[in-house]
Amino acid sequence: MNWIKKGFIFSPDGTFDWSKNYAQIPRALILQDRIRIFYATRYFDENKLPISQTSFIDVDKNDLSKVLFVNEDPSLSLGGTGSFSEFGIHPTMLLTRKCETYFFYQGWQRGDEYPYATEVGLAKSTDDGLTFKKYGEEPIIGKSKFDQYYVNGVFILPYENQYIMYYSSGKEWLKSDEGKLESVYQIKSATSSDLLHWEVNDKFIIEPKFENECQNTATVVFYNNKFHMWFSYRQALDFRNSSNGYRIGYACSDDLKTWERDDSKAGIDVSKEGTWDSQMVCYPYVFELDDRLIMLYCGNYFGKTGFGYAELEIK
Length: 315
Hints:
By secondary structure, the protein is an all-beta fold. Helix content is 1%, strand content 50%. It has one helix at 300-303, and strands at residues 3-10, 21-30, 35-44, 50-59, 67-70, 89-97, 100-110, 116-125, 133-134, 151-159, 162-175, 181-192, 214-223, 226-234, 247-253, 260-261, 282-289, 292-298, 307-312. The protein is globular, with a radius of gyration of 18 Å. The relative contact order is 0.15. The mean pLDDT is 95.
C-alpha cells in the first residue's frame, strides 16, 4: 500500500483565546456537501499549564486542503472541578446513527501520583455536530481492573450486530533519566451492542516491535476483503525528537481477532526536512470518500504544526 500525500489542511493561528496552538487528533464527520473535521487544540491557564479544547473546521470534499469554515467556539465545555475532563477534551470518534451523531471524546485530568489520567465520555448532536449535549458528566469507559491507569484513543467499528472499540490502555509508568514519569500504552479492543455499555478485557492485540512501545489511535477499514488497521507508535522514553517520535504502523486481519503487524505496509512516513511533517506522522484517521480512501494525520511535535491528508494509491 502507498499513501499519496495531498497537502496540509489546518493549524490554529492563535486568534481565539481557547486555541493558541496544536491541531491534534483530526476526526472526520462526512456531511452531504462538506467534511467537518474535529480536532484538539491548546491554550494555557494563569499558571502557564496547558488546557485542551475541541472544535471543528469544514473543508471541501473535493479538495480537503480548502477550508470553508473555522468554528469560533469550542464544541464541548470542560468538566467541573475534579471531573475527568476538567483540564482537557480531545475528539476520538464521531459515529452517525439515524439522526444523531455520537461523539466519543477523551477527557483528561491532572494527577498527583501520575502526571495525568484520561477517560472516555460521550456527547450527542442532532445538528451535524454544530452543537452537542453531553451524556452526563461521568465517563462511559474509565479506569478499571483491566485498565488501571487510563483509556483513550478510541475508534469504533460497526460490525454485524455489535460495535467493536479499539482503544489505548495505559500499561505502566516509567521514569526517564531526568526523573520524569512517562507512560506506556498499547491497543486493546472492547465490544458493545448499544454504544453505552462496553465489555472490556485485559488483552493487548498488536504485538509491539520493541520494548515499552507506545501504541495509540487505531483506525480500521474493510478494504479488498480484509480489515486494515493504521495506528501511531513510538518509544516510551526520549520520544520528543525526530528519531524516536511517532510513526504510523500497520496491521491486517481476516476476523478482527488476530492481527498481523507489518509496518513496511503502512505506506506513509515523514517527509523531507523542513516540512510540517518531517519529524513525526501520527494520529491517523482513515475513511472512505466517494470510492477513495483518505487518511487524516498530524505532523511534527504531536500535531503542534497541525494536520494534513493523504489518499491511498489505487493500482
